[in-house]
Amino acid sequence: MNAAVRRIVALLVLSLLLVACSEPAPELPINTRMGGDFSMVDQHGQPFNTASLDGKLTLMFFGFTHCPDICPATLFHTVASWKQLSERQREQVQLVFVSFDPQRDTPEHLKTYLAFFDPSIIGLTGTEKQVADMAGGYGVVYLQEQVEPQQEAMFSHSDFVYLLDQQGRVRKLFKSDFDQQELLDGIRSLL
Amino acid sequence: MVSVAFYKKTVPLLLSLSLSVLSLTAQAELLISDAWVRAVPPNSSATAAYFTLTNHGESDEVVVAARTKVAGSAEMHDFEVRDDGVKRMVHLHEVIVAAGTEVRFQSGGKHMMLMQLDPVPAVGDSVQLCLMTKAKVDVCTDAIVRHP
Predict the structure, then answer these.
(1) Mean pLDDT, rounded, of chain A
(2) What is the pLDDT of residues A107-163, one digit of tens each?
(3) Residue A167 — left, alpha, or beta (φ > 0 → left; ψ -120 to 50 → alpha)?
(4) Which of A23, A84, B116, B134 sits CB 3.0–4.6 Å from B72 for a disulfide?
(5) Residues in chain A closer than 8 A to B89 (CB atoms)
């Protein structure tokens, strides 16, 4: 095989590889078992319900602000990943933190807490029932732990990050220590 | 007078140095490295510290308590994952660092939990963390407050 033929073969292989790489990512399935109607209050004291999610993609995480490790770690990781998107893409993706500790996580408390990570994060709280209903809809488990009297209440909880589409439908769940590229690929596949 | 002044300054210094060396010798078996404290919002009540504990000695070391001045209470914790995926924090009453090995305290695993923060340390602050062994030896280090 002379040099010219080798070059042509190499170009053909490269072209095939490029075509393979440009294949669109498979469409994320719609999770019909999770979600549903909810009615909460945001960190500004304004009502926030299912319809409020419409129009943008949503990255949603359930936690509590007195959480020492997983919640702040996941919030930081999620915001850092979201900042990897272009400005135009970021405008189409909203970040939502839902507290399952409404007694301590008042709207005012959430406002200060979330601003530390990014002021654009939407913080949701509500009555115990509102929180339980919403968490139940997304299959979130949270259990208050028995602690010493002088200690503050702690929760055991599931720790998924939910990717919702523009209609508020759950499209994918990520572990709290998710791979950043996998999350970005999931987001971009829905934009 | 010069001589007296010299002794007044030098003797305490030498004594202090000797005590420091003795203290280091007692603690050198167990060392804390790569310590940092997670930066959290100013209205947080809790955060966590992470580090590597290395036992350079020839016998196992048992850490039984933790403390830091910025927290009303500090404990060693770990997570256990239930069958349904729920993560539950577990209070560790002791952590054994076998001779010649290391134990890592890291996010999502073993960590030093700092509760009742007062004040809440800010990014860039240096926080002293101390661990106590079963033999009642304090092992301390300075940890920087930062984001991951």
Answers:
(1) 90
(2) 999 999 999 999 999 999 999 999 999 999 999 999 998 777 777 888 999 999 999
(3) alpha
(4) B116
(5) 69, 145, 154, 156
> In whole angstroms, what is the distance from residue B62 CA to residue A61 CA?
37
Q: How far is CA A102 from the centre of its chain?
A: 20
pLDDT at B127: 98
Beta carbon pairs, A and B, within 8 Å? 83
| Nearest CB neighbour to A112, from listed B38, B43, B114 | B43
- The verdict on a CB contact (< 8 Å) between A69 and B45 is no
Per DSSP bridges, beta strands A57-63 and A93-99 are: parallel
A131 contacts A40 by C-beta, under 8 angstroms: yes
Is A7 a residue whose pLDDT tops 90?
Answer: no
**What is the pairing mode between strands A122-125 and A93-99?**
parallel
DSSP string, B85-113: S-EEEEEES-EEE-TT-EEEE-TTSSEEE
* Shortest Cα distance, chain B CAs vs residue A66, angstroms: 6
Q: Check whether the bond before A24 is cis (ω within 30° of 0).
A: no
